[in-house]
Automatic annotation (TrEMBL):
GO CC, one annotated term: cytoplasm
Protein name per Swiss-Prot or TrEMBL: 8-oxo-dGTP diphosphatase
Family: Belongs to the Nudix hydrolase family.
BP GO annotations: DNA protection
PROSITE patterns with a match to the protein in the record: NUDIX (PS51462)
Domain of life, per lineage: Bacteria
Domain named Nudix hydrolase: residues: 6-142
Species name: Candidatus Kaiserbacteria bacterium CG10_big_fil_rev_8_21_14_0_10_45_20
Pfam families in alphabetical order: NUDIX (PF00293)
InterPro entries: NUDIX_hydrolase-like_dom_sf (IPR015797), NUDIX_hydrolase_dom (IPR000086)
Cofactor(s) required, per the database record: Mg(2+)
Amino acid sequence: MGYSVCMSQATVCFLIKGGDILLARKKRKIAEGLWNGYGGFREESDDSLEETAIREMEEEIGVSAKIENLEKIAIISYTNKKEDGRLRDIEVHFYLVRHWVGTPRSSEEMYDPRWFSIKTLPFDEMMPSDSVWLSRALQGKKIKGAIVHNEKKEVVLSDMQEVSVF
């Protein structure tokens, strides 16, 4: 039995205010019910990753930002094994956003937006792989790596390194 692999690119943005980070619960897909940042897949091949990030923030949280307000903190390649055995490879570009316009709100994709202290993130209610890299990135480190999840969303392999530039 062979595996089919789907490769795609996505973005996730974390709004930051002082020492707090805005997270919301996902309504569907791999992180359903878990706290997460805002983002999604690159839909138009002409869109840059930054344009994708801005579009997704507007759709999922109702705020807008300029490209120069996006600070890239990580590039993580994920391999997720689905329950049917298929693999899904996704390269996710993560950004911090400190300046935006609008008031964060719930949407069709995300609900219950809530501010958390960066020092006490709810890792037990986030994707398990977030605990591998996110705290380091929030301390100012740039992270590049790869993570493999099994069908239960557990991390079975991770390889992270700090980089100076992307």
